[in-house]
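Example for tutorial group B:
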């Protein structure tokens, strides 16, 4: 089982940027905690950060056939990017959206997520802990998919 974590623009500045909103944790620290969880739960995890919309789209496309699920914080592109939304839709993988801050309590322009309608779930406002919650949620989603597939295979076999 493989999960790809996709991080959008300015998230490489965590720990420096607006600490009153995003807290003091650096992206590397968040990823180190996620890696520990992945190791403990025996799944593969890959991290990707870019400030460029097209690179984020490319990474999501690369997940097709390579990953089982995506955890994504598209950062500012959340509010503008139809291209990222379409890429998530195109690959058809279970995707969990994460926002460190509660975007629904912030400026009006942040209160709309272009990607939420194509995601299995959205986690907002828990700070960096949201990434941990996303991994727990993703594990649950993937287990459910696996169980459903096993059930379908068994039903198919008994019908033969
Ligand atoms: C963010 C919220 C976005 O509005 C903002 O542009 C970000 C970070 C968050 O994690 O809270 O860069 O996605």
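The residue assignment follows.
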């Amino acid at each position: 089982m493989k999960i790809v974590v996709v991080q959008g623009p300015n998230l490489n500045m965590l720990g420096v940027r607006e600490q009153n909103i995003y807290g003091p944790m650096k992206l590397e620290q968040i990823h180190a905690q996620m890696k520990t969880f992945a190791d403990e739960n025996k799944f593969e995890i890959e991290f990707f950060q870019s400030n460029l919309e097209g690179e984020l789209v490319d990474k999501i496309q690369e997940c097709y056939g390579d990953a089982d699920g995506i955890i994504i914080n598209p950062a500012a592109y959340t509010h503008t990017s139809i291209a990222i939304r379409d890429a998530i839709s195109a690959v058809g993988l279970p995707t969990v959206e994460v926002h460190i801050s509660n975007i629904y309590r912030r400026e009006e322009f942040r209160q709309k997520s272009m990607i939420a309608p194509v995601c299995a779930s959205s986690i907002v406002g828990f700070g960096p802990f949201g990434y941990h919650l996303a991994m727990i949620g993703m594990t649950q989603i993937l287990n459910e998919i696996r169980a459903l597939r096993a059930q379908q295979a068994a039903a198919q076999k008994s019908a033969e």
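The first strand starts at residue 2 and ends at 7. Compare this with the pattern of hydrophobic and polar residues in the output above.
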